Amino acid sequence: MENRFIVRRVEQDPAANQHQMTLVGGLTGPADPGPPHSAHDIFNSTSTTCLCEPADRRPSIVHLTKEALPRVDYYSNALEGMKRPSLGDLHGDDPCGKDVDLEQQHEAADLGGGHGIKLGWIQGVLIPCLLNIWGVMLFLRLAWVVAQSGIAQTLIIIAISAVVCVLTTLSMSAISTNGEVKGGGIYYIISRSLGPEFGASIGLVFAFANAVAASMNTIGFCNSLNDLLKSQGLQIVDGDVNDVRIVGVIALLVMVLICAVGMEWESKAQNFLIAIIMGAIVDFIAGTIVGPKTDDEKAKGFVGFDVEVLRNNWGPSYRFSENVDQTFFSVFAIFFPSVTGIQAGANISGDLKDPASAIPKGTLLALLLSMVSYAVFVVFAGGAALRDASGNVTELAGAAFSDCSGRHCDYGLMNSYSVMQLMSLWGPFIYAGCFAATLSTALTNLLSVPRIIQALGIDRIYPGLIFFSKGYGKSGEPYRGYVVTFLVSACFLLIAQLNVIAPLISNFYLASYALINFCTFHAALIKPLGWRPTFKYYNVWLSLVGFVLCVSIMFLIDWVTSLITFIIIFALYLIVVYRRPDVNWGSSTQAQTYKTALTTAYRLSNIGEHAKNYRPQLLVLSGKPSARPPLMGLANLITKHTALCVCGDLLPTRLSHKSRLARVRAGYKWLQSRKYKAFYTVMDGLSFEDGARAMLQSAGIGKLKPNVLLMGYKSDWRTCNTDDLVAYFNILHNAFDNRMAATILRLPDGLDYSKVTDDADVNTPIAASNGDLTVNSTVLRHDMAVRGEMLRVDSNLSFLTHHGGSDSTLHLKDSTQCLPTDSLTSGRRYNLQHDKTWNIGSPKTILKSKKKAVAEQILKDATGHDIPREILANMTLFDRKQKKGTIDVWWLYDDGGLTILLPYIVHMRSYWSHCKLRVFALANRGHELELEERNMANLLSKFRIDYSSLKMVTGITEKPKSETVNMLNSLLEGFRESDGAHEECRVTDTELATLHEKTNRQLRLREMLLENSQDAVLVVMSLPMPRKGTVSAPLYMAWLEMLSRDMPPFLFVRGNHTSVLTFYS
């Protein structure tokens, strides 16, 4: 520990026996005097050292507080990096469990980049860029470009290429200096800036382009080798394409092996190659200055610097060449791959010591040197050599050697690809430079492709590339990637035609550069707080110009190839969008999503509401979503992809931050596994009524606020605590006080399946919305006895205390332990992801195994036993296709149209589209039944509601049957004054007398429901209005019980009496 001890020299002195030694921990005491000679026994030399506490020692700040001082380790994504104390540690929260935030940071840690040799900006960026730019075109095609386009237009081609590359380099420098750049190069830059969709698609295309570029440069090497062999009268097979194929495959294999050996050997090879190339450049310049040395050189077109030659070669002379009528842009397409080496440093960004500094510095300098060298080559070649020459020395006297009209000439800038060897001071050195340039460019391409593929595999973007994520050795060499790179390059090498491959590569590179420019433009335009590049010499509009310029050149070169390129990129983009990889890289696309959502929310708040644009936005009191699958299924059916849905989870006890976060994550995990579009919020530390009131008032923002309350029916209202019953009843009043619509769902077998889905929260505080598991003592299936009683859960909304009643109740203990995060679906998914056995085999085998496991486990409960089919059917009632049946709508009272709108929405869903809509309405006067039916039919027609039948019911005011009245009386037992009921849950005789007629209507409605709708698939009915101060909670719940008992799935609906339907256009 620092500042704990100092080193003190103890001299050999008799007084040393009296020295007080300081012990570790601050304890002091006299030394043992011992015998007189003890000092010599202890200190057997002239001096020794011991650990002593300094007299003026002061504790450092780290020993006085738990607070952490700022340091770089706290901001690193490395798994082994230090972590600062959490807010909970400093605040004194319950330390149970792991911090979920830290776990998420661990999961987000980037795995790119090895730990082997790290390169500086010269060795890692400048030299690779120069080697990549000084490629095959420099020695084999630049003279041909000058012959076709002339000096002026060739300089324009170089200038346009330079502008594209400079703008792209500025954009790439801005992105690469906006934080650390890991392994993966262009893929890493684009994916972390624009997201995995763009990054993965363009990264794969770019890797493919580099692999093809390696084959193109290898073809150039083989062509040069063939020319050298021909000059000596030699050949391997035919001196043409077959020789190219044989030598090319061997050369590719050797270069792949060099790359696979490691960065150190590849770096040494680069130094040797760059020296040869620079020597060849000097050889060409010196030879051109010296001029032709023999008449044979003059006859072949090398005449030395001459004003007349410069004038003749200044303008273009496009001809039919390479089976194409050449134009400016066709020549540009062939030349452009020669300047596509600017990404060489970024491609190996994971192997750089400081990518943020090295990439802009090395790339810009390499671009400057290469463009200057190209311009010098163009002027020298165009000013000292003829376009056409016969090579016949005897024609020199009359200058006929340069007139090739009517005959074919084999020499000159237009006809000979080896004219630079002719113009050099020593021809063989040009061959060496050509070999070095082509092989070095191929080497850098072969080096970058496997690392891009490895980065894609590590990020698990495409399943087929996961196999290539494995690294070998201390630097994580991607040997598997080298194999596939060799195979792809070898396939294109077999084409053996340089000018056929070049335009294809140009399109892929231009597409990559366009995306790089767009990345910078997008990030600089959105300006997220994380956009702080240290490279300041960029401009948002210049990046946009670079993007437009790249796309324009692509289509001017070849619109068909450009279209195919974008189709491929778009297809790869759609694959990533469909797979939805679970990554969070803080891309500018995410920032744009937030900014767009915020702007839209602000704009929406200023837009007035209209019935045509009405959407039912639900607040669902679901507790944990996985505990009540049918309730969430109905909510999803109503709001599916079109409206807001908020799941509210109310807990009376207070949760720690970690427990709350774990609960929320488990809820979202379940929603995502079911593909439900909903928000999930937890409110703890409040009673059920207070929490519901707070949620009704605060849920949502602006116009994105719930306008419909959806909750489950409280089936244990007769046996629960009176406070719980009153709280449940008051929620309806609170909803209506906030002018919200209210809906209540009841299923014959209840809604709460937390025992089945392992969401009973046995070790956690239970939300008031979850309640005790009030279960029916009836066993659902006989085969469930094998694993103990599986009890039917009837309580949809119940509470922590329970009194009376014959139902058995499972009382759960309060605890502050951390929450489990598993559920029926999410737990299975979690286990699958963490089971190592799934990683065995190919990605296709892994996918099949996962699907099979899901299919086997989806019918099992949390203990691994089979869920009875009837329970599973109830849980997935609203998530499965319904057979033919009816949805009966009892539109009794006009509430604005919500009672008819909700069943119509359900009917429009594909799973429920086979169910017919039947409408029942009350007749005001029996003798005008036909007229009222026509009026109702006309109203439904104006609303464009498609229904199968309409029935006007009469007799609502008739006296109910005696057995129906007796049933109501039995429900009210224990709540009457004579029973001594609690004052808040007491049904007085005065209340019964006052509401006698309304009560009779509810009883008559029950009789009509049993007569007409007992066989329906779903019944939707207007919810009776609980008038304040008039009806008590027990009497109101008795009304609902009478209406919905022994009925199919039942939905009560009461709108807020604002029109949600209109017949105006």
From TrEMBL:
<dbReference type="InterPro" id="IPR004842">
    <property type="entry name" value="SLC12A_fam"/>
</dbReference>
<feature type="transmembrane region" description="Helical">
    <location>
        <begin position="479"/>
        <end position="502"/>
    </location>
</feature>
<dbReference type="InterPro" id="IPR002443">
    <property type="entry name" value="SLC12A1/SLC12A2"/>
</dbReference>
<keyword id="KW-0630">Potassium</keyword>
<feature type="domain" description="Amino acid permease/ SLC12A">
    <location>
        <begin position="124"/>
        <end position="619"/>
    </location>
</feature>
<feature type="transmembrane region" description="Helical">
    <location>
        <begin position="425"/>
        <end position="447"/>
    </location>
</feature>
<dbReference type="GO" id="GO:0016020">
    <property type="term" value="C:membrane"/>
</dbReference>
<feature type="transmembrane region" description="Helical">
    <location>
        <begin position="538"/>
        <end position="557"/>
    </location>
</feature>
<keyword id="KW-0812">Transmembrane</keyword>
<dbReference type="InterPro" id="IPR004841">
    <property type="entry name" value="AA-permease/SLC12A_dom"/>
</dbReference>
<dbReference type="GO" id="GO:1990573">
    <property type="term" value="P:potassium ion import across plasma membrane"/>
</dbReference>
<keyword id="KW-0868">Chloride</keyword>
<protein>
    <recommendedName>
        <fullName>Bumetanide-sensitive sodium-(Potassium)-chloride cotransporter</fullName>
    </recommendedName>
</protein>
<keyword id="KW-0813">Transport</keyword>
<dbReference type="Pfam" id="PF00324">
    <property type="entry name" value="AA_permease"/>
</dbReference>
<dbReference type="Pfam" id="PF03522">
    <property type="entry name" value="SLC12"/>
</dbReference>
<feature type="transmembrane region" description="Helical">
    <location>
        <begin position="150"/>
        <end position="177"/>
    </location>
</feature>
<keyword id="KW-0633">Potassium transport</keyword>
<dbReference type="GO" id="GO:0055075">
    <property type="term" value="P:potassium ion homeostasis"/>
</dbReference>
<dbReference type="GO" id="GO:0055078">
    <property type="term" value="P:sodium ion homeostasis"/>
</dbReference>
<feature type="transmembrane region" description="Helical">
    <location>
        <begin position="563"/>
        <end position="579"/>
    </location>
</feature>
<feature type="transmembrane region" description="Helical">
    <location>
        <begin position="362"/>
        <end position="386"/>
    </location>
</feature>
<dbReference type="InterPro" id="IPR018491">
    <property type="entry name" value="SLC12_C"/>
</dbReference>
<dbReference type="GO" id="GO:0055064">
    <property type="term" value="P:chloride ion homeostasis"/>
</dbReference>
<keyword id="KW-1133">Transmembrane helix</keyword>
<feature type="transmembrane region" description="Helical">
    <location>
        <begin position="198"/>
        <end position="226"/>
    </location>
</feature>
<keyword id="KW-0472">Membrane</keyword>
<feature type="domain" description="SLC12A transporter C-terminal">
    <location>
        <begin position="628"/>
        <end position="1065"/>
    </location>
</feature>
<dbReference type="GO" id="GO:0006884">
    <property type="term" value="P:cell volume homeostasis"/>
</dbReference>
<keyword id="KW-0739">Sodium transport</keyword>
<feature type="transmembrane region" description="Helical">
    <location>
        <begin position="328"/>
        <end position="350"/>
    </location>
</feature>
<comment type="similarity">
    <text>Belongs to the SLC12A transporter family.</text>
</comment>
<keyword id="KW-0915">Sodium</keyword>
<feature type="transmembrane region" description="Helical">
    <location>
        <begin position="125"/>
        <end position="144"/>
    </location>
</feature>
<feature type="transmembrane region" description="Helical">
    <location>
        <begin position="272"/>
        <end position="290"/>
    </location>
</feature>
<feature type="transmembrane region" description="Helical">
    <location>
        <begin position="508"/>
        <end position="526"/>
    </location>
</feature>
<dbReference type="GO" id="GO:0008511">
    <property type="term" value="F:sodium:potassium:chloride symporter activity"/>
</dbReference>
<keyword id="KW-0325">Glycoprotein</keyword>
<keyword id="KW-0769">Symport</keyword>
<feature type="transmembrane region" description="Helical">
    <location>
        <begin position="246"/>
        <end position="265"/>
    </location>
</feature>
<keyword id="KW-0406">Ion transport</keyword>
